[in-house]
Specification:
The protein is α/β, with parallel strands linked by helices and 377 residues long. The protein is built from eleven helices and 14 strands. The chain has helices at residues 48-73, 88-97, 111-116, 121-129, 160-173, 192-203, 223-226, 249-266, 293-303, 305-315, 321-344, and strands spanning 2-7, 10-15, 22-26, 32-34, 43-47, 103-105, 180-185, 208-214, 217-218, 221-222, 241-245, 269-274, 366-367, 374-375. It has a six-stranded mixed β-sheet with strand order 4-11-12-8-7-6, sandwiched between helices. Strand 13 (366-367) and strand 14 (374-375) form a beta hairpin. The relative contact order is 0.16.
Length: 377
């Protein structure tokens, strides 16, 4: 039978066989292409288990970031803090399309990526608090989180993109059927090193997927005020590109699976994930001078990735509103527990201050904050 379920002024067509746990969904927006003769399909099939998994993962990221923002205001987190709220569908959808041997390298808005790549919310929150059980032992903070096949979390604007090309070269050199996804924001898109990475990746046909997470505001500047061309998926020139609705987790998943296949056969591709962040660039950004609260409210009401997926789950008969509220309630309870345990965890021992500088040898006379202070192992 066929169900038509309306959400935010759009009709999502759902085809589901009787007593089946899978359904076919029509994507909300068409893909826009650059130098490509074909594109991902505009319909995709997903199971109830897959959609519920994506729903929970996005709910976890959203709640984790909300806790982090509150902890920052309470001065439990110091330094930089860049939140991923609103962009959850990009990390969850892309991770769903990749396998465990594909590599990811990101910019500093990386908490959501650290989670989908394997770190627990408790380890991520502990890292934000500077605690020893944090995913970087309390020494990396918000911008520097790593795990197997996840190369950060990088604090220098755009610097991760050429490193991502290098990781793609490693996959190619070792004959591995894998890609490297290098993510950056619209604010980093005009960096020269981004175009240098495009060039060498195309020259050597590297299995690289360059992803511009376009949330439209590079720090506090709207993209049309900073970029002569805001069609970021075309900015690779000779590198093919595709624009994706980054608020639709299924569109992200399908486009990423398609892009991986393309990159393995043809070399690099640029993906523009059109998305939106609900918080300021960082917690120090008052977020009041370059957009209005009505702008954010409109995006939450019409395009929120969690709301969209909720609509699909209910429309397909995979879950009721009450069941989804229960999932969110359970997520809130677990994240509150994680927060309390992370906050109560011990700080790193003082000798960890100068550990992990060199591999395989002890270091001597590591300079401290002034010329008169030094440390040795």
């Amino acid at each position: 039978f066929q169900i038509t379920h309306k959400m935010a002024g759009r009709a999502a067509l759902v085809f589901r066989r009787f007593a089946s746990n899978s359904a076919t969904f029509k994507l909300n927006k068409e893909f826009q292409l650059h130098k490509l003769d074909s594109s991902p399909a505009l319909e995709t099939t997903a199971t109830s288990e897959e959609l519920l998994k994506y729903f929970k993962e996005m709910a976890v990221i959203r709640r984790m970031e909300t806790i982090a923002s509150e902890a920052y205001r309470a001065k439990q987190i110091r330094g930089f803090l860049h939140l991923y709220s609103g962009q959850e569908a990009v990390a969850v959808g892309m991770r769903a399309a990749l396998d465990s041997n594909d590599s990811i390298i990101s910019a500093y808005r990386c908490h959501g990526w650290a989670f989908v790549m394997g770190w627990s919310p408790k380890a991520i929150l502990a890292e934000l608090f500077g605690k020893a059980i944090g995913c970087s032992a309390g020494k990396g903070g918000s911008m520097h989180m790593y795990t197997e096949k996840f190369y950060g979390g990088n604090g220098i604007v755009g610097a991760q993109v050429p490193v991502g090309a290098g990781i793609a070269l490693a996959h190619q050199y070792k004959g591995e059927p894998n890609v490297c996804v290098a993510l950056y924001g619209d604010g980093a898109s005009n960096q020269g090193q981004v175009f240098e990475a495009y060039n060498i990746a195309k020259l050597w046909k590297l299995p690289a997927i360059f992803v511009c997470e376009n949330n439209h505001y590079g720090m506090g500047t709207h993209d049309y005020r900073s970029s002569a061309s805001t069609a970021y998926y075309t900015r690779g020139d000779y590198v093919p590109g595709i624009k994706v609705d980054g608020m639709d987790v299924l569109a992200v998943r399908e486009a990423t699976a398609w892009a991986k296949d393309f990159a393995l056969k043809n070399g690099p591709i640029v993906m523009e994930m059109e998305t939106y962040r609900y918080h300021g660039h960082s917690m120090s950004d008052p977020d009041t001078t370059y957009r209005s609260r009505d702008d954010i409210k409109k995006m939450r009401e019409n395009s929120d990735p969690i709301v969209q997926l909720r609509s699909r789950l209910v429309g397909a008969g995979f879950a009721t509103e009450e069941q989804l509220k229960t999932i969110e309630k359970d997520v809130r309870a677990q994240l509150q527990k994680d927060y309390e345990e992370a906050l109560a965890a011990p700080e790193p021992a003082i000798d960890q201050l100068y550990a992990h500088i060199l591999t395989g040898e002890k270091v001597q006379n590591v300079r401290g904050c002034d010329l008169l202070t030094s440390y040795s192992q």
